[in-house]
Every structure is written in structure tokens, then in C-alpha cells.
Amino acid sequence: MGNDNIEELLQREEAFHDEWALSENVDDIDVVNLFESFMAMENSYAMSKMGDLKGKKILDVGAGLGESSVYFALKGAEVYYNDISPKMGEFAEKLAAKYNVKLNLMIAPIEKLELYADFFDIIYCANLIHHIPESDHDYWIKTMHSSLKTGGTLITWDPLRYNPIINVYRKMAMEVRTIDEKPVGFDILKVYKKYFKTVEHREFWFTTLWIFLSYYLFRRYSPNKVRYWKRIFKEDKKKIGWWFTPLKALDTLLLKLPGFRHMAWGIVIVSKK
């Protein structure tokens, strides 16, 4: 991707996320729920792969509102928050103050940062890779690898490109995402395996995607006014657990099968240096 095109993309991303940050209220954010609710399947899995975070140096890339950064800090980590958006960084600072933790802010695209080599124990990136042009995947993953200590872990999770229902939803929800996003495919695993000693992946959300359909068909949430992937964390297990829990169990079985994995909403990739 040419330098001019990259600059235009970065400007679009910064402006979009600045606007998003200005629309949010710190009092509405529950960082613990984001990681520990019955809906937090990706994050629960990620935490199981991180182990004890006390004293660990964590780089949280594309950290947005800062929920994950604050949660890691609550667990005792030394957290380096990164985002392209200055307004997101300001919001994250307010969120950290709410929870009485400290974040080390790094406001810039990764492409413009000089990261120390062999420095971080963990690098965490939620819903970020699909914002990066495919032509830059190799450079980006190589940079993450270089910044990790030997034995360090890179954890990323992003939407997959195969599920037709999700692809319809994405076309409908154009106002709550950037135009440059492009869900990943399983072929991206080759890039991770090029640099990392071990690469594991797990897929999430198949039959459980029924909740998205219920948001649209029954609750009448506009895809352009309600971020469905954020709204799920407000769900009450007492109210929907009776039907959602069996679907989670069914997904656990089905998404172990290669054919069904392509129908998952998202993939979590855990890579060890």
C-alpha cells in the first residue's frame, strides 16, 4: 500500500475513533463485565492463555476506550495503552482514573512508534488486525514478534470473513465501523507461523449469533445506532441464559469441526515467541 494511501487510511481511522470516543460516557463502562460476563467468550479464553498478570508488561494495541487496558492494570500488569485516536486516549485516562489505575499512553499508529525489542511479556490486540491492509500484515506481525520477550505471547482476535449473516450485518452497519475494515481469513495464520514458534487459534460465535438476529428482528435495534458487539455485554444471564447457554455449549462442539469453523464470527489467535 502506498504511503499516501496509508496516511489517508490512518487519518480516517483517527477521525472515526475520535468521534466514537466523544459519544461515550465513562460511567457507562464496566471493564470487569467485559472480561468476566457470560458473554465474554473471547476475552475469557484470552485470559486463560495469559496466566497471572501481576508485574507483566502488556502492550494493548488499538485499545480504544481502554476497557482491556484498565482490566489488565486491575490484575496487576504494567500496561502500555496504544491507540491512533487522541480522544480515545483521553477517554482511557478518565476510565483508568475511575478504577484508580495507571496506564502508560502511547498515542500513535504502531507504524509510527519505535518499540523496544524484546520488551513486552504480552501483546494484546482486540479487533485490530482487520483494520490493517493485507499488504501490511507481515510487517505488523513481524513488529509484534520483535517487541516481545522470548517466551512472550501475542493474542489477537478479529472477525472472520466467511459467515454470510455477519457479512450482511456488516453491510447494514456502515455507520458504526470504518470503511477500511476487512475481516480476516484462515490464510492469515501462515503469517503468524512465519515468525512465531507456536500458533494456536480458536473460533467463537456460530449458533450464538442468534442474539444478533434477535437484536434486529425482535428488539429492533438499529445496526447503525447500536454497536451489537458492545451491546452483548449488557445482557442479563438470568433473562437469556436459559436459551443462550445451550447455544454456547453447542458452539463449543461444532466449532471444533473444520467445516463449521468457517461460519464463526471471530477467531482468537495465540502466538508464542
Please give a structural write-up.
This protein has 273 residues and is α/β, with parallel strands linked by helices. The chain has twelve helices and seven strands. Strands 3-2-1-4-5-7-6 form a seven-stranded mixed beta sheet, with helices on both faces. Strand 2 (78-83), helix 5 (86-98) and strand 3 form a beta-alpha-beta unit. The protein starts with a helix and ends with a strand. The relative contact order is 0.14.
Specify the helix fraction band: 40-55%
Distance between the termini: 28 Å
* Count of individual beta strands: 7
Element string (H = helix, E = strand) = HHHEHEHEEHEHHEHHHHE
Low-confidence runs of at least 5 consecutive residues: none
Radius of gyration, in Å, reads 18 Å
> What name does the CATH topology carry?
Rossmann fold
What are the key terms here?
273 residues, alpha/beta, seven-stranded mixed beta sheet, 12 helices, Rossmann fold, single chain
Please summarize what this structure is.
43% of the residues lie in helices and 18% in strands. It has helices at residues 3-22, 31-36, 41-50, 67-74, 86-98, 137-147, 164-172, 189-195, 210-217, 228-231, 237-254, 258-261, and strands at residues 57-61, 78-83, 104-107, 120-126, 148-159, 198-204, 266-272.
Blueprint of the fold:
Layout: H1 3-22, H2 31-36, H3 41-50, E1 57-61, H4 67-74, E2 78-83, H5 86-98, E3 104-107, E4 120-126, H6 137-147, E5 148-159, H7 164-172, H8 189-195, E6 198-204, H9 210-217, H10 228-231, H11 237-254, H12 258-261, E7 266-272
Parallel strand pairs: 1-2, 1-4, 2-3, 4-5
Antiparallel strand pairs: 5-7, 6-7
Helix pairs in contact: 1-5
